[in-house]
């Protein structure tokens, strides 16, 4: 254990990357970076982190910002509940701790969205407290070096790893050591092909000596995401809405809460193995009915494109249809940029938002937007790409390209 800690720390001092959140010990910066780094690569996080800290330089500024702005800053990073929880926690810190991140274990644990890993990271990196910060990367390194064959998907293995990781922290070196462990997992003891030949602890790595470096850690596979085909409408406006498309806001809780998107609904099973084929007349008919039920006067005209979006538990295939706004005497269709609401009833809710619950009576905000309006709304990546593809294609057609 002493060998491992000593050589890892030495290696870290010589090899650590210059990352924006390493340039200060500000607990707020460390906290933001750790939340962003969950499930996300460092290279992806860097520009987001810089933009986020530029826009919300203090906890107060984050606490006081409109949620829409926070989501916009997070747009494309995924797992948007992280952003909402971070803002909620910033408000907790502002109200209960005068805007200073607490250095007390109990208090840090009470912040929304802060689990054992993030709490350990904040307490150790910012306050140098000997707290373990154990995530999948750290468990991989420890499993290999100490030849631990316990299943890292199990909660009790994590607890065991936390005990070990805490024991490994050299006195007074919690901040550097925990970062060394994370950095080693990211750069050397990587998931698929660990770089054992340049590893600072390879000499005594039990996993490598046993030839197990690529078969460890043991991890039972998570259930694959459930596939779901959805019919999406790219409604092109006409008359006073000409040049714009219709977007709607998701409910205030559940999947992608309060993000903006193209309207879409689950494709009925009857369309064939749960999937609609591009250009399928039955799918277009179904979409037309879903649009009408939602109070949107539009007719699907042709298949635009398919797009994929994966969550931890669902995999969406979106079949997107170009639809044309119709002039029907529906009061909702008369609204221009003002929000219009399609009030849903309880019986319609499963049809409209099959992946949420308890949101049946919530107003659905909708907007007609042009390309220039996109900056005002936060979209999940898949819809951002779809809208950009649509506006690109339209601009190219308009310019004869
Ligand atoms: S020797 Fe290989 S398996 Fe062992 S800790 Fe180093 S990189 Fe990982």
Automatic annotation (TrEMBL):
Task: Write down the InterPro entries for this protein, in alphabetical order.
Answer: A/G_AdeGlyc_MutY, DNA_glycosylase, HhH-GPD_domain, HhH_base_excis_C, MIG/MutY, MutY_C, NUDIX_hydrolase-like_dom_sf
Q: Name one Pfam family in it.
A: HhH-GPD
Stretches assigned to coiled coil: none
**What are the required cofactors?**
[4Fe-4S] cluster
The residue ranges of the HhH-GPD domain are 36-187
Q: Which reaction does it catalyse?
A: Hydrolyzes free adenine bases from 7,8-dihydro-8-oxoguanine:adenine mismatched double-stranded DNA, leaving an apurinic site
Tell me the keywords, alphabetical order. Answer: 4Fe-4S, DNA damage, DNA repair, Glycosidase, Hydrolase, Iron, Iron-sulfur, Metal-binding
Asked whether the UniProt record includes Nucleus among its keywords, one would answer: no
The EC code for this enzyme is: 3.2.2.31
Which PANTHER family does the record associate with it?
A: ADENINE DNA GLYCOSYLASE
Q: Which family does it belong to?
A: Belongs to the Nth/MutY family.
Annotated protein name in UniProt: Adenine DNA glycosylase
Originating species: Paenibacillus sophorae
Gene giving rise to this polypeptide: mutY
């Amino acid at each position: 254990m002493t060998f491992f800690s000593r050589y890892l720390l030495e290696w870290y001092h010589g090899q650590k990357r210059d990352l924006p959140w390493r340039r200060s010990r500000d607990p707020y910066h460390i906290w933001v970076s750790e939340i962003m780094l969950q499930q996300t690569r460092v290279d992806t996080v860097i520009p987001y982190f810089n933009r986020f800290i530029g826009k919300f330089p203090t906890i107060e500024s984050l606490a006081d910002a409109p949620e829409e702005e926070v989501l916009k800053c997070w747009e494309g990073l995924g797992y948007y509940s992280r952003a909402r929880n971070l803002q909620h926690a910033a408000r907790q810190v502002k109200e209960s701790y005068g805007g200073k991140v607490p250095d007390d274990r109990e208090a840090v644990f009470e912040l929304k969205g802060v689990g054992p890993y993030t709490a350990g990271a904040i307490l150790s990196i910012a306050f140098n407290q000997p707290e373990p910060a154990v995530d999948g990367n750290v468990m991989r390194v420890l499993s290999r070096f100490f030849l631990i064959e316990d299943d890292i998907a199990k909660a009790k293995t994590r607890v065991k790893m936390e005990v070990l990781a805490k024991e490994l922290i050299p006195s007074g070196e919690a901040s550097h050591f925990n970062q060394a462990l994370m950095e080693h997992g990211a750069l050397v003891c990587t998931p698929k092909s660990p770089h054992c030949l340049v590893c600072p602890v390879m000499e005594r790595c039990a996993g490598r000596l046993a030839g197990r470096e690529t078969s460890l850690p043991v991890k039972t596979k998570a259930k694959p995401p459930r596939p779901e085909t959805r019919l999406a409408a790219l409604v092109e406006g006409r008359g006073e809405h000409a040049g714009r498309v219709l977007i709607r806001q998701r409910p205030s809780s559940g999947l992608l809460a309060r993000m903006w998107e193209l309207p879409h609904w689950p494709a009925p099973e009857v369309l064939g193995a749960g999937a609609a084929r591009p250009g399928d007349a039955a799918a277009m008919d179904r979409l037309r009915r879903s649009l009408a039920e939602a109070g949107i006067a539009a007719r699907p005209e042709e298949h635009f494109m398919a797009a994929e979006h994966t969550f931890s538990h669902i995999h969406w295939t979106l079949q997107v249809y170009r639809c044309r706004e119709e002039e029907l005497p529906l009061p909702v269709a008369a609204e221009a940029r003002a929000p219009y609401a399609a009030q849903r009833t309880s019986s319609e809710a499963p049809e409209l938002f099959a992946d949420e619950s308890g949101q049946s009576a919530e107003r659905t905000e909708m907007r007609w937007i042009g390309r220039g309006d996109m900056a005002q709304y936060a979209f999940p990546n898949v819809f951002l790409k779809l809208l950009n593809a649509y506006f690109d294609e339209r601009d190219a057609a308009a310019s004869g390209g």
